[in-house]
Fold each of these.
Amino acid sequence: MKKRVTKINSIFLSIIMALTCATLPITAMAESTPIKNSSTSVKLAFAAWGDPQTSSSTITSALAARAKNTEASAKDLGNAKSTLDALLIAGDITENHTADEYAMMHGFLADKGVKNIIAAEGNHDIRSSDYSEAKSGFVNFTNGINAAVGSSLKISKMYYSYTVNGYKFIVLGSEKSMPEESYISQTQLNWLDSQLKASTKYGKPVFVTMHQPLKDTHGLPDTWNNNITKKAGSVGEQSDKIKAILNKYKNVILITGHLHTGFGKYSYQKIGNFHSVNLPSIGITNRDGYEAPGLGYVVEVFDNKVVFRARDFINGEYLSQYNIKIYPDRVKSASLSTTSYVYNGKIRKPTVTLYNYSSQKISSDNYTVTYPSGCKYVGTYKVKIAFKNKYAGNPSKYLTFTIKPKATSISSLTSGKRKFTVKWYKRSTQTTGYQVQYSTSSKFTNPKTYTISGTSTISKTVSNLTSGKRYYVRVRTYKTVSAKKYYSSWSGYKSIVTK
């Protein structure tokens, strides 16, 4: 009887466990996390989407899914617990830039509480019709949706700029209909340069957006499915020019789309002075990384950093493992008390001075200075400045100074027939050799120079000169370090007339 009861209890327990396990996925399923600022210190918050490619076509399930994915992502914006200052869309708003596709996007976004819609055109928005017609459709959509959400943003062409909460957004756009790439005119490039020059002088991050990324970035051309040319998948012919302009300025963040790559190794890249973020598609299932549709970022801007918070907008979930943190350079200028010393056998450590964009001197409490070892010999030395406290996260800075060999001077200068002989004082410490230079001008225009290797030779006779001509002569030392010559200052000159 006891064994029978035990068996019944065991069966009953198994049934209970089975039922419990069956319900666990439902009861333990993570609930969506509404969009909400992570801190009260957020100065600007905006969502960043790429490639909705909203389609009104239902010919294939893939085309029909794009509108559903975008609509679900838009609902996530509407459920936000903190106000979004903007939604940035990095192109390919529609599949075929038809009026009904733009109308669908307008309907998805108009009542979601987003204050501004900052949109760039993509190749799908312009590629299959007359450019003026495509431009008109894009401009009308951008102006219409911004009027609907209460924004003052109004555009008349494909490229424009707009300021939100004191932060500048610069939008680039093609000026021709092209199948995959963009055409950026020299006029637009000049405009970009002037916009960046004006807006970066305050030290705040500046957001530049265009549809296609620069060539050789974010895994291109391999991340493009038709990588037959080096520039495949990129903005095109003007890529290098755009890159050069962006590189001139600090704290520029380029935001692009087009590639449909998910969160992962191709999402972020530091390119010279500027940062580049490539957005996944919001409407299409992504590849080469975290593969799902509805992916994008909620971007939070602080005084000292910009955080791209990776989000699945369809399921309302943050994917923090794919977050991107960018620390703007808040140091306007950095200098050393001197950048050049003369060797004297002592360790040299020039002092550091830093200023922020408010022209205030940065306290040394906010950084540490590291000098290289042995900085007393002839050579070049790199000083590292690492930041902490109020400037924690600011990119480290590197400044250099040199130590030059000690100079020498002329001990005698004697004249001979169509020649002269110069002698100088010996320098044997931290010296490899000497140089003798002469000219018929005291300003040493068109001089002739002789290099003397070794420190033992301390005289030089120069022959085959013009008789009765005045010559000006000077000398200096040099030291070779790692195949580089470091020169002392020139001695004072002496002059003599040949016999």
Amino acid sequence: MKKIAKIPITFESRLSSEEFAEKVKNIIAEQEENVTYSEKGRQIFYWESLGDDKYSLKFYHSYKSDMCDTAFYGQVNKGLSGCQLDGHIKKPGGIWAIFWVIIAVAFLILAAFSVAILLSETPETGLIPVFLLTLVPVAFVEVNLLMFDKKRLKAINEYLREFTTAENYDVLSEELEEDERG
């Protein structure tokens, strides 16, 4: 299983949507009280309310020492006997910003290289393959930037399943275990 950029996921819970909202509200209030507490180096799940029953959960494997690279964005839907949290585990905006900055820098270098070759009286065409070879590590970095670390996927999935007291079949955990076996 190679998961890149976005994974759809659903958690069915016996909690009502109001109970779920209250539970998240309490955690957000607790997070705000502990702002001055040094969380550096700790693994932390950081909740945010996005309004209209929409929430985000950011996973820091070493809070304040790294950038959040795995997050859940979802919406709570009312059900007949509880609620359902539908959403995606995906890369947050900071990762996408880095991704596009790297692409932009590569294109600027390509443009400068092209202009230098075109304006040169004796173009050095032997450097074209060298430049193209430098794009290989850039492509490797870009793909790895958007791929999910399996341990982080497992951690955020387990946390959300426990938090929501999810009762539905856990497809993501099954896929992760199958990858470990195969």
Amino acid sequence: MKRKLLNDISTIYSIRASILNKLTELAELCICDYLVEAKLLDDDLLEINIGIGKILILILEDSLEYQFIPSSRLEQLICDSIIKLKSPLVSKSEQGLEEKLVSTYKELF
């Protein structure tokens, strides 16, 4: 199964995909800058916090190795989702809808 995270975020939050794509391009440029800096400093392990976890990049002589480590929050959400078979995205959407309905109800009376 393949998914496009940025497309879904764009749809959910009504953010133009072009804006998210520009942010992605900027993130890519920053990662490359970090790699150059690490290489110049003879540091062979680069750790980048990307908000939802960390990307570790091991700089070898003729290659790179990558590893992703999810944040503790993401890891907990993943575990809960798999165990309960319930999407936190759906739960958050339902909660938001409920809050809007209660707010509208209070305004009417």
Amino acid sequence: MKNFIKNKKLIITFISCLVVVILAFIGVTAMKMIAKDSSIGSEAAKKFALLDAGVQEKNIEDIDVQFDYKDSAYVYNVDFETQKKEYHYYVKASNGIILEKKIIKKKKHKKKKDKKESKKKKTNKSKKSKKKKGKSKSSSKSEKKIKETTKKVKSKKNKGSDNVDEVIGLDQAKSIAISSSGESPGDVIFTIARLNGDEYDLQFYNGNKEYNYSIDAFSGSVISGYSNTLDERDSND
């Protein structure tokens, strides 16, 4: 009789633990489904990652988008690759902000002839650039940086979106920064928007929130980006 009571208690305890585990699993699954339903969606996450990388969808060889949970937040894990690089992105599921990214260059195996030709091209380019440097010095430091950037662009030829060879333009740089911040274009006010060498320096506000971004002028990728929440005193000033 005593053994029967003990076994009965063990069975009840086991069933109780099993019910708790099942309920916890159901709760976690339900929360994940709710977060996914209210998220930006896998297509939007993919577009945010491609926009940040400066890669067009037609140049992608393989892409994989997974809904995941990382560092106390639901994210989209976007992995894709082109002929020359591999890209790994973590995009915040709620607003599309790039939380983490990793870009890896693929190894190339060139023949000796190709190496010699590339060396010749580099020496020719360096000779041309030295001749150009001896010209006008009347402009200021900032103007010189802009001129050098445009010369660099004009001397190149388009080789596809993976090697971006043209300045993307201020409007596109603004659009990339706004998309990365998760704000709407009509809600923000820009206070700084300028080309600084190979980068666009951008600062904009939405209410009491300040955003600062540096965008690569050629690829359109986000070099740095952060936001600050201002208190009422700062916003009034």
